[in-house]
């Protein structure tokens, strides 16, 4: 059985990073997203700071005291959910979604929490968002969807989950990367996912 994505990652290379062979190609089409966010502590509100470090007790405290709204934004239009997703704090993500935070909301780069979780390789956070009806077909400023980022990261399981939740396989980014293109064997990503029991 063929793999959906082949990995040429070195053993010392972090999981979720693009292989060196793909890095140049993906960067040229705007797909090498910086993992996480560059954060300046002084620019963050208390709730954002707590969410960015996964301090669930502080998040609960700030929301319980009505000091902050669950959907409050910082200077870069990020919500606490964006920051928790980018840094992989699934317990904080679960709590924020239970508090009815918006899951289909954009930051200053037009990225939703899902399109931030996927390139940061935060699968547990992405799964929670998908279960809370996050739209996997939202696009960022470069026209990339979460599925584009999953392909860049060579994440078969994330790509399969996105496809299961109706990610747009026809989506093209601004560089016209077509997710429905065929490989040298004539198969698409969706067909590989199906062969491997993911659809």
From TrEMBL:
Keyword Cell membrane on entry: no
Q: Which UniProt keywords apply?
A: ANK repeat
One Pfam match, given by its short name, reads Ank_2
UniProt ANK repeat ranges: 76-108, 142-174
Tell me the superkingdom of the source: Eukaryota
Q: What is this protein called?
A: Uncharacterized protein
Protein source organism = Cervus elaphus hippelaphus (European red deer)
Classification from the root reads: Eukaryota, Metazoa, Chordata, Craniata, Vertebrata
